[in-house]
Write a sequence for this structure.
């Protein structure tokens, strides 16, 4: 009887190779990909002109196509909130709950294989590749807390781990599994070449925005401003787009950095007050806050004027659009570069 494995497919090289190793042993493999809302690929590549050269593709679907396997994409946005907000094993360097995340996803995969009568789970984990979740000491924790126990196979580093149920039962051959360790990808790249895999997603430190310092700072700012650790999908999508400034504790500005972002932000103009330059070329600004005053709008117009390259003594008019669609013109003198206070920036490293 042909055995069946469910492979966690992130879209990266490691999960691709792990699934391929199982296919090479005659295992029927299907893939599963979990959508959390924090995925890096696809969304920003479609907006930013600096990413024009990158293919606008879903890498998990592309991997499934290369392997010739079926891929199941599961929306876990709501369920995943508990992982982000209250990780049992804490965060990594930023707001990345990597260990809890891995446990959660393998637990979901374990539920799936029980429901669909598959035999085991496959991941592309490599010992020593991730400082939080891929250490030899955390491998048993993931297997145990996810409920997958010894039905969890890690083909890329299996030689350094105890034999799993599929190995002991002879479903797969242990001597055909691999012994990769550490952060170097030379072994994986060489293996990809033997399988004639090309144009795969380049390893770049993970595919989750929560590992990004600037993104995590914006998420922490969101929690502080609303007085609660919670979020909706629109919240975390907007954190990926534009410059985020907080001129005052009660409101924030989201400023488009280029045409693609401005067009994306247009879709939120019925949910936020917004502002556009009337006399100059410049970005769209969303005003995220409550009980905004005329002084707040005046300040936002001055900041917008700075991003339109107006001179400090030059008259600048902004068109303020309220959520209900009514319009108001504001004429101001824009801020000079020296007037922008560094602490307004939520992201690190932002410069005018």
């Amino acid at each position: 009887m042909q055995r069946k494995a469910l492979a966690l497919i992130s879209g990266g090289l490691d999960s691709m190779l792990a699934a391929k190793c199982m296919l090479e042993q005659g295992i029927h493999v299907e893939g599963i990909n979990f959508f959390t809302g924090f995925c890096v690929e696809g969304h920003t590549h479609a907006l930013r002109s600096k990413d024009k050269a990158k293919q606008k593709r879903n890498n998990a679907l592309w991997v499934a196509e290369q392997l010739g396997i079926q891929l199941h994409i599961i929306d876990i946005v709501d369920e995943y909130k508990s992982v982000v907000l209250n990780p049992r094993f804490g965060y990594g360097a930023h707001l990345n709950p990597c260990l809890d995340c891995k446990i959660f996803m393998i637990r979901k995969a374990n539920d799936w294989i029980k429901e669909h009568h598959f035999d085991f789970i496959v991941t592309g984990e490599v010992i020593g590749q991730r400082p939080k979740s891929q250490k030899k000491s955390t491998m048993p924790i993931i297997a145990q807390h996810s409920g997958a126990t010894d039905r969890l196979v890690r083909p890329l580093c299996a030689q350094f781990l105890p034999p799993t149920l599929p190995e002991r039962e002879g479903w797969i051959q242990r001597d055909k599994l691999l012994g990769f360790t550490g952060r170097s990808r030379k072994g994986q790249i060489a293996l990809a070449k033997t399988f004639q895999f090309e144009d795969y997603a380049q390893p770049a430190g993970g595919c989750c925005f929560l590992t990004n310092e600037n993104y995590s700072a914006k998420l922490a700012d969101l929690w502080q401003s609303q007085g609660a650790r919670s979020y909706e999908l629109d919240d975390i999508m907007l954190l990926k787009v534009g410059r985020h400034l907080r001129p005052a504790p009660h409101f924030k500005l989201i400023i488009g950095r280029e045409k693609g972002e401005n067009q994306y932000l247009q879709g939120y103009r019925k949910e936020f007050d917004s502002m556009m330059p009337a006399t100059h070329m410049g970005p769209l600004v969303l005003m995220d806050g409550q009980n905004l005053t005329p002084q707040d709008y005046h300040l936002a117009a001055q900041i917008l004027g700075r991003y339109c390259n107006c001179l400090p003594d030059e008259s600048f008019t902004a068109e303020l659009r309220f959520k209900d669609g009514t319009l108001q013109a504001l004429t101001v003198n824009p801020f000079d570069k020296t007037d922008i206070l560094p602490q307004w920036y939520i992201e690190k490293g932002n410069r005018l």
